[in-house]
Amino acid sequence: MVSLFLAGQAWGQTGRGITIFADAIFYNGKVVTVDERFSVAQAFAVREGKIMAVGSNREILDLAGPKSQRLDLKGKNVLPGFIDTHAHLFIYAVENWSSDLESLEPQLKEFRQRELRVGSVEEGSASLKKIAAQSPPGKIINIRIQPVSVAEEFGRKNWLKEMDEIAPSNPMLVRLRGGDWRANSLVFKMFTDYFGELPEDIPTDANKKPTGQINNVVVSVLTGEIVVQKPQTLAVVYKKELQAWAAHGVTTWSSFLPTAKVMSGFVLLDRAAEMPIRFAYSHQMGSAGFPQAAGFYERLGNIAGHGTDYLWTIGVALSPLDGSYPEHCTSIQAAERVKSREKCEAEAQYRIMRAAVRAGLRMSGTHAYGEGSVDKFLDIIETASAEAGLSLEEIRSKNHVIDHCGMSPRPDQIERAKKFNVIWSCAPRYIEIAGDISKDYGEKYAHEWNVPIQTILRAGGRVVGETDDGALLRREGGVFAHINMP
C-alpha cells in the first residue's frame, strides 16, 4: 500500500475512495529509494514540487488525474538528490563567476587572482617584486604560484618579513598549495581596519603578531566580508553556482559560513525563495571574524537546527585544524623531510572548540586532515563535555562530525568515535594521493588509514559523503568522478 499526503485541491472520487491527483507520474523505471532495505520501486508521483508517493507502476498510475503529466522512464535509474556534506560553493562561486562580480562591483577586478609560473623560489620572489613595483600603491596583488613544488618551497622560505620586503606598498596575497597562503602586513591591516583587531584564528607568533600564513577561510573572510561591498553582489553569483550543482544532481550541501556578509547573501536568496538547493551550514562567523571567538561561542547558545527548509544551521565550525596533504598532522614516524611539512599547531582553534563543546554546541564542518588532528578533536569532545557535566548519552546526542577522512581514522579512533557517536564525513577525492602517502609513510597507511570508508562501516561506524572539490563539475563523471576512479 502506498502512503499519500493530502495537499491542494486536485482530487477525485474513484472506486477506491478519494484520490489526490499527482502533477506528474514517472513510471517504468528503477527508483532507488535508499530506505532501510535499499528497495527499488518502479514509479513515483510528484505534487507541488515534492515526492507524493513511490511504488509499483499500477499503484502510482492510479494517482494520475486528467491533467497529470506521464513520463515513461523506459527502465532508467532514478536516484535521490545527492547530499554533499562538505563543499564550499560560496568560495567556488567567487572564483567561477568573477566576471559577474566585477560587473556589479568594478573594484573587484584588482582582486582577481593571477597565476605566476616560475622555475625557482628566487625567480618567484624577483617576479613578485617586479609586479609590486609596477603596481599603484595600495592596489591588492593576488597571485598563485605554480608549479606546486616551487610554491611549497616558497612558503617554507617566505613569511611576514619576507613578504613585506617583496611588496612594501601593496597588500599581497600569494597562494601556495591547497588552502595555504602567504600575506604581507598590509593584508593584515585590512583586517584590523575592518574588525578593529585580528580575528583569533589568524596564526600569530609569541608576541601576537601575524606570522604571514593564512588559509582559505581567512581569504574567504577577506573577499566576502571586506573586499565585496554588498551582499546582493554575492547573492547573484551564489545563485549561479548553486544552479550549476543542482544540474548535477546535488540537492543539499553543507559547509561553514564564515562571515555575516556571506550569510546575508544566502539569506537574500532564501527570503526571495530563490535558493536552487538546500544549504545546511556550520556557524563559523565567531571564529573567522572575531578577536574573542571563544567567548562568542560560550554565549551563542545551541542554535543547531534553527533556520528554514533551505537555509539552516547544523553546528559550529572551526578554521582548519591542520593543512591538506602534505601539510597535515599525523603521529606516524617518517623521514625528517616528511615530518617537517606537517602542521599540528592549532591552539587558537582548539581553544575555541573547548569553549563551544563546554557550552553544549555541536561541532561540524571543520577541516581535519590527518589522524593527529583527529586525536586532538576526540580528546576535546571527551574532556570538554566532561567539564560541562554532560553524560555519555548527552554527548552521543550531539552527533559531532569530523570531516575529510584524509589520513584518518586509525582503527582505535573508529572505536573511540563510535563511543561518542561521532560521524565521519569522508571525501573519496583524497584516495587520489594514495601514491604520495605510500611514498612518504608506507603502503599500509595509504591503503588502511586513508579514507577507510568500508573499514568504518564494517566496524559499525557512521559515514556520510562529501566532495570538497571546487573543480568537481568540470571533471568527467561530475559528482561520480571520485567514485569511478580506477
Your description of this structure?
It is a single chain. The chain is α/β, with parallel strands linked by helices and 486 residues long. The chain has 20 helices and 21 strands. The strands form six sheets. It has a five-stranded mixed sheet. It has a four-stranded mixed sheet with strand order 7-6-3-8. It has a four-stranded parallel sheet with strand order 10-16-17-18. Strand 1 (11-14) and strand 2 (17-20) form a beta hairpin. It is globular. Residues 1-15 have low confidence and may be disordered.
Could you write a compact summary of the structure shown?
The chain is of the alpha/beta class and about 475 residues long. It folds into 3 domains: about 10-80, Roll (Urease, subunit C, domain 1); about 105-225; about 230-480, TIM Barrel.
Radius of gyration: 25 Å
Largest sheet: 5 strands, mixed
- The secondary structure category is alpha/beta
How many separate structural domains? 3
- Strand-residue fraction? 15-25%
Give the N-terminus to C-terminus distance in angstroms: 42 Å
- Low-pLDDT stretches: 1-15
- Give the overall pLDDT as a whole number: 91
CATH-defined architecture of the largest domain: Alpha-Beta Barrel
Biggest sheet strand line-up: 11-12-13-14-15
What is the CATH class of the largest domain?
Answer: Alpha Beta
DSSP summary, beta strand count: 21
The 3D shape can be described as globular
CATH topology of the largest domain: TIM Barrel
Helix content: 25-40%
CATH superfamily of the largest domain: Metal-dependent hydrolases
H/I helix tally:
20
